[in-house]
Amino acid sequence: MKATALDGTWKLRPRHPERVAAYTDAFTAHTEIPVPIPGDIHSALIHAGIIADPYFAKNELDVQWVGKEDWIISREIKIKKAFLSGQQFISFQFADTFFHVFINGREAGKGGNMFRSWRFNVSGLLHEGINTIEIMFESAERRAIESAARQPYPVPYSVYPVYSPHRNLVRKTQCHAGWDWGPCIMAFGVYESIRLEQTTKGFIDYVNTRYVRENDDWQVEVTTVYTAITDCTIPVSVKIEGPGIDTVITGTPVNVTVGENLIRHTVTVRRPELWWPAGCAPEDTAAVLTGSSALRENPLYTLTVTAYHAVKTKRIAFRTIDVVAEPDEHGKSMYFKVNGRPVFSKGANWIPCDALPSRQTPQKYEKLLRDLAAAHMNTVRVWGGGQYEKDIFYELCDRFGIMVWQDCMFACSLYPATPPFLRSVRAEIRHQVRRLKDHPSLALWCGNNEDVGALTWYPESIANRDRYIIDYDRLNEGVLADEIRQLDPDRAWWPSSPSAGPNDYSDNWHADGRGDMHYWSVWHEKKSFDAYLTIKPRFVSEFGYESFPSLSEVQTYAPRDQLNLTSPVMEFHQRSPGGNSIILENFSRYFRFPEGIKNMLYLSQVQQALAIKTAVEYWRSLRPICMGSIIWQLNDVWPVASWSSIEYSGKWKLLHYEAKKFFAPVAVVLYKKDGKISAHVLNDTEENLPVRVAIRFLTFDGKSAASQTGAHAGTQTDLSIDATVAPDSVLKVFECPETELPLAAHECFIYAELTYGDNRKTSNTLLPALPKECELRKACIKTAVKRLAPQIFEITLTTDKPAFFTALDTKKLGGTFSDNMLTLLPEAPVTVRFTADSEKLTQEKFEKALSVTTLTDTY
Length: 859
Ligand code: BMA
Description:
CATH class of the largest domain: Alpha Beta
Bound molecules: beta-D-mannopyranose
Distance between the termini: 70 Å
Helix content: 10-25%
CATH superfamily of the largest domain: Glycosidases
Number of domains: 5
């Protein structure tokens, strides 16, 4: 078997230059521009200067015509005589979406589902010497509109401020059509290598595994899915290599017949090392106690199957993973159990890492997933409005121990149940399950995002509920669950997110007793942050709160004259209806109103971090009732106001820094609920954890509150508590009624410091009154900077008065602080490190870029 990847520069032209002339004069009848493949067409047009950067200002509106046209990419390829023996094929993965392939002018095949793989037999179409390959992409928007006209009845879907109609009728990344955080860019292209293949026998399409554990030994059942082009006998070898293991089954002869063959081997692997989610391996506990921050990589084993000349290699690992959803005294549990150990899922929701597929680079995947793990997260949810992710995504999750909650790609919509649609989805899910199921990180298959709820969102489905419920069930149980249960019987199937579990269709936006919740009462229903403390969820797979990006990021899309929160461009880069008003309204709820855009952007990030911190700290303290909190959302597809914890450029928002603290395996949390203030120690390690907790009541001058005139007699004074927290659990170490604070709530704050392990310290702060009510003193903060290594700077911060929500920023200079969003106390300097992306950064440049903002600076 021979294969060539047709990567490189192809040529691009519109199918109808005369129509495109209405938008650009760049294309005459014969003009072509270069387009890198794998890649997308919008990116090529941007690169050629034919369309403007759609992420800037309101340019997105000016590029909508691109998605309404048809486009052709072409290239020549030289074929040698030897390649023409046997049969030849052209294959596609991630081809977006409606395309026709022509070889030397003759149609070789067509595709119409971005999530399927396609292989077309091109034998007889190629010849020795120069051949032309053309791929014609049809407008998915037009195809969706045509499909809508053919539906037996309307199939409703949710729309966003800028959108392309009937997205739900085409099997394409749903958010390409616009979302409440994303632009409408109806991309076209092929985002993985197009391969030209030649064989005399056949192909290995997939290699899949199942595992049976017998004490320390594992039986691996390897199924090779082999498509033969002729009846023949081929030798098949299976090899598993890795730390301490080298097991081979060599060359068993296997008879195959034309079409798909399943070839099975069983391999015994003795005492492999186990795969664990981040933070859960035995050595992770030791790292927590000593303070090592290195990211642990999991032991992965290489499985290679050779079938005649075809070879397939993949990385596998050894672990058990179960979803425990069982009735209990609180309703029904939901949590992951890995190698027998219950794991609290800490994580974020993943949307595609760029709206332009050409910019979904391996570097971006690696940075985002490293950043996710750096914030002590162990779970990522691949949300159903995006895409089954690229291989590199799952490979990184395997390495770093990030459990993947995998939605099937359906979101916020109803979907058709016509036979052609269901056939297309069946082929899609069969491909994706066999492609992805061996990743040790893959923890759960979920049917869709919010499609059960969507049944109640539209007049059509409210009026004719039965019809749409039947369609829902045909797709979800009839196709998705049916295929997943058959092809991946060892992995959990979860019907929808949110869901109370199989066969239960409760309202999991508000009911907290069973399954996973999407808790949107804070933000979409505009409740106060306290609402997070009114539920006892089992697992929250979505909850979020918006902020603006930092000033340097806003400047990438808003020209200077638009730097105002109600300017047209700032409102355009906000897709959640009324979003800017919600942010501003909450400023007035919690804070003294900030002056100037810079302070507003900063405060929006403080507010977001505070909202999500309130939720996560409380829900973690409910363990084991609650066993998961997955923040909406990790990343952005373009620069925009959104719920993300990391800005489009990769800069961490204050939320991501705060997440690193509120998701830490060992943490102290403080909260006020029902008039009581309490402190809890969270221990996600597998050991009994002796701790000391110092609780101090301080004035806004930084003095002990109890010693002040005005302090009530017989009230709380500073405390030091010694305790031992059991493994994987939470201990309440302190509680007092708010009325026992030494001073009025707005005159003092509580500062808790936890000591554990090798003299490791972590702290937390609670303002018992709303920040706007507190009589904060203006703090004068000083910084001293030292360069420790070419990329590492140390910043020491000192203050004369307690300073809250103190944030460091470096404008456009890329890099990450070791800590941010700090409480600073007088006489207690705080040192943080900044690791720059570039080695070329001078101390002078760094100091010039560095800014410090604290709450009292904003008004
Ligand atoms: C959800 C998600 C997304 C959406 C987000 C914010 O429920 O599933 O569809 O972007 O909320 O509104």
